[in-house]
Amino acid sequence: MKITWLGHGSFRIEVAGRVLLLDPWLSGNPVLPEDRHEDAVAGATHILLTHTHFDHVVDVLPLAKKLNIPVAGQYDLMSHWAEHEGIETIGFNKGGTVDLGGPKVSMVPASHSSTFASAEGLRHGGSEVGFVIAGDGHALYCSGDTGLMADMDWIADYHKPDIGILSAGGHFTMDMAQVAYAAKRWFAFRTLIPCHYKTFPLLEQSAQTLIDALPDVKVIEPQVMQAIEV
Known about the structure:
By secondary structure, the chain is of the alpha/beta class. The chain is built from 7 helices and 16 strands. A 7-stranded mixed sheet has the order 6-5-4-3-2-1-16, with helices on one face. It has a 7-stranded mixed sheet with strand order 7-8-11-12-13-14-15, covered by helices on one side. It has a two-stranded antiparallel sheet with strand order 9-10. The N and C termini lie close together (6 Å).
């Protein structure tokens, strides 16, 4: 499995013969150089969407149409897009698992919100979710934007993820101390990658608190467009 941070909450995940783009934010992403946009999405086979805030959804439809690849996400939104946007979608819901021709992706709860601006005002974009991606002998928990939640107990117990990508910037999601709490209380990660931080001054700028709190876990501060192999 190869994991590449595109900045903020966006990732390129190469697993089991597929290339998954998780919440790909290219346009206006302040930490992803424009001349790396094509590299970031090259060979992509699927897009995974956790929720519809602009910093996660703004490039999803354009990329799906440009690359001619399906978007997998929450059923209500996927059904609407399939009907009105002319793209291929894979709609499922919390508790469901889909096989993407190699990796198996399970949808799990998140605790956040999922809205977007429109000409008619603020609209609801389905419910916010996370994913567990199984492939190449690993289970990867991608929390999406979320606060701490009791659902992490059963997610950890049932799916047993050994790798975590957790939102950790604070203000909108968990901060580093809360991610450390979750990791200690519920999870048995071997590798943990914080995200949704450093993008703006409002968010946490360092993962040192997380690193110090988890001496027995390989906490990796990701660098934009530098692949992490696990």
